[in-house]
Specification:
Chain A: Its cofactor is FAD. Chain A: Keywords: FAD, Flavoprotein. Chain A: It comes from Sneathiella chungangensis. The complex is a heterodimer of chains A (529) and B (65). Chain A is α+β, with helices and mostly antiparallel strands and 529 residues long. Chain A has 13 helices and 24 strands. Among the domains of chain A are: 223 residues, FAD/NAD(P)-binding domain (3-Layer(bba) Sandwich); 117 residues, Glutaredoxin, CATH 3.40.30.120. In chain A, the strands form 5 sheets. In chain A, strands 1, 2, 7, 8, 9, 10, 18 and 19 form an 8-stranded mixed β-sheet that branches. In chain A, strands 5-4-13-14-15-12-16 form a 7-stranded mixed β-sheet, sandwiched between helices. A 4-stranded mixed β-sheet of chain A has the order 22-21-23-24, sandwiched between helices. Chain A starts with 23 loop residues before the first strand and ends in a 10-residue tail after the last helix. Chain B has 65 residues and is mainly alpha-helical. Chain B has one domain. Chain B has 3 helices and no strands. The two termini of chain B are 25 Å apart. Classes of the chains: A alpha+beta (529), B mainly alpha (65).
């Protein structure tokens, strides 16, 4: 079923009605998933923002479709997790082919201990639609302006003045902070002349979304099919997986040196698809050709301009680390920016966004580059090794684990970075770990954590662990919680559901207080030893 | 003596890192140079394994393409 893009209206902003709305705490450039999620996270903390987007529709084409567990957990905190889970497709069976031979298949069993699955497939336009709907819950805090193109920015020490172009005229808008969520081709990044260099891969890929009522699989259970050296075309790899509304994503790696425009023509695409899906009826819904670069900015924070998502870092699509990485940027920056704007933390706290998310982006680039290298051998010997791995993978588990068609996006650990206290115990979760979910009978642990700093204690209560101004959460005799968190432990949890510090029960309050000051960026920031 | 090779994944969690190191070692070599590198590597790893039964089983599995 084809998605119909709704057009959102332009509304005359106060600046063009002769009003003087004053300065905004935050201006967000770009109403993609990153920009909108950013505004919602800030609104949940009481921070007002204005979003400016040059377009008036959500994503045209499915684009990012794989949303990983951590992303779903973040979206759940922002209020659209349930809708994504309900609509998204959770695939369970994966099949890996080498030529026309199936090398192995596997069952991705759902983990009952977590609310969210390993990931769901859901078109970017649905995610954006849900975000637009959610934004409507914050009429006093989020001002979403369509058809409003930012054409320039004047950056001074304590703020930024943006020039905005609209059909009704240009205007200027001042903000304390500008968040550049304007994507891989960020105009702000270009205008500021920032270096954005990295490794460009020369292969081209052809994405086709196919509308096909009858599934190509043997049963109704959604599957994911991946081919090395597919029999139906001359490229090195191909991928097929299902999206909602009977839309299938088929991703073909094109042969080196082929003409992408030629390959995207229906007369080329349709016969190839028929070889994959047989004589089932289908219609082409969307076609796109892409190549990619792995690159990141040297700094994500440039005074009052902060880069978030693709504007700060781009990766190859294998492992779905683009959109998922960007949402983790949002999760990391939201509470920090809110704390700085409320005067609860020094502006230096924002430098830890830079430290932590550059660390995450580097890890994502490393993983996606490894997958790309495995999938696109650069020499005859690389191809020999790739084929040897696939040969051994039929019966040897180690080789199966070496097969790399993308390592699923998982969040990085923040251990050893400035806000986390050094590790004091080998038990339980290490500082910097993203909190794992656990079933609580009614509801889920992660729905109770996050949004603010919390003290989580697990085990027999011997005294009241409390920190001024910090909410406490206690679990006793709770095997699902202790399975991950250990017993007789005290955790300081960050608003983004990461462990800031972990202690054995009985640790003195002064030590906990010190860890809290460190995690809030109130103590002198230095990298943990 | 029964011949067997390890059903365990002994490389985890370093598989991807190992593969990257291996590919880097081959960078810039022509095919013959790469084959020679592989031969040296096989011999060194055989010595690391040491056990002839294991090596014999590995040779048998590798010979099956």
């Amino acid at each position: 079923m084809h998605y119909e893009n709704r057009e959102y209206p332009f509304r005359t902003p106060p600046e063009l009605k002769g009003e003087t709305p004053g300065r905004y705490p935050v201006a967000i450039v770009g109403a993609g998933p990153i920009g909108m999620a950013m505004a919602i996270d800030l609104a949940l903390k009481g921070i007002r923002s204005v979003i400016l987007d040059d377009n008036n529709v959500v994503s045209v084409g499915s684009r990012a479709i794989c949303w990983a567990k951590r992303t779903l957990e973040i979206f759940d905190r922002l209020g659209i997790g349930d809708r994504m889970l309900e609509k998204g497709v959770t695939w369970k069976v994966g099949r890996l082919f080498h030529g026309d031979k199936e090398v192995y298949n596997f069952d991705l069993l759902p983990d009952d201990a977590h609310k969210m699955p390993a990931f769901v497939n859901l078109q970017q336009y649905y995610v954006e639609e849900y975000l637009v709907d959610r934004i409507a819950d914050f009429p006093d805090l989020i001002d979403l302006r369509w058809l409003s193109k930012v054409t320039g920015e004047e950056v001074v020490a304590d703020g930024v003045t943006l020039t905005v172009q609209t059909a009704e005229g240009d205007y200027q808008l001042a903000a304390d902070y500008v968040l550049a969520c304007d994507g891989a081709k960020s105009r702000i990044r270009q205008r500021m002349g920032l270096k954005f260099e990295g490794h460009t891969f020369e292969e081209h890929f052809l994405i086709t979304d196919v509308d096909m009522p009858k599934p190509p699989f043997e049963s109704e259970t959604p599957e994911r099919w991946f081919w090395f050296k597919p029999p139906f075309h001359t490229g090195q790899s191909a991928l097929l997986h299902k999206q909602p509304d009977d839309i299938y994503r088929i991703d073909l790696q094109l042969e080196f040196g082929s003409d992408p425009a030629e390959e995207a023509k229906p007369e080329k695409v349709i016969p190839r698809l028929k070889q994959i899906v047989g004589d089932r009826a289908f219609e082409i819904d969307w076609v796109s050709v892409y190549s990619f670069t792995c690159a990141m900015l040297e700094k994500f924070v440039h005074g009052r301009v902060i880069f978030v998502g693709d504007s700060a870092h781009v990766v190859s699509p294998f492992g779905a680390r683009g959109g998922n990485g960007g949402i983790q940027d949002v999760d990391n920056l939201g509470w920090k920016l809110a704390a700085v704007l409320k005067g609860e933390a020094p502006p230096d706290l924002l430098m830890t966004y830079d430290e932590e998310r550059r660390h995450g982006a580097a890890e994502n680039i490393m993983n996606s580059s490894r997958a790309t290298n495995f999938m696109t051998p650069k020499s005859k010997m690389e191809a020999v090794f790739r084929d040897a791995v696939l040969n051994l993978a039929s019966d040897l588990p180690f080789a199966r684990r070496l097969v790399n068609s993308g390592r699923l996006s998982v969040p990085c650990s923040l251990e050893g970075l400035a806000l986390q206290s050094p590790r004091r115990t080998d038990r339980g979760l290490a500082p910097g770990t993203p909190c794992p979910d656990a079933p609580l009978g009614e509801g889920w642990l992660l729905n109770k954590l996050g949004g603010e700093f919390m003290l989580l204690t697990v085990g027999k209560k011997t005294r009241d662990d409390a920190l001024a101004g910090v909410k406490s959460l206690h679990f006793e005799n709770h095997p699902d919680v202790t399975a991950h968190y250990g017993d007789n432990m005290i955790y300081l949890i960050r608003p983004d559901q990461h462990v800031a510090a972990a202690f054995e029960a009985g640790t003195d309050v002064a030590t906990l207080t010190q860890a809290l000051a460190r995690a809030k960026g109130q103590a002198a920031l230095e990298t943990a030893s | 003596m029964s011949k067997r090779i390890s059903p365990e994944d002994n490389l985890q969690p370093h598989g991807d890192e190992f593969y990257e190191l291996l590919m880097k070692a081959h960078e810039g070599l022509d095919f013959d140079q790469s084959a020679a590198l592989n031969a040296r590597l096989v011999l060194i790893l055989a010595n690391e394994v040491g056990d002839l039964t294991t090596l014999s089983a590995a040779i048998d599995r590798a010979a099956r393409s």
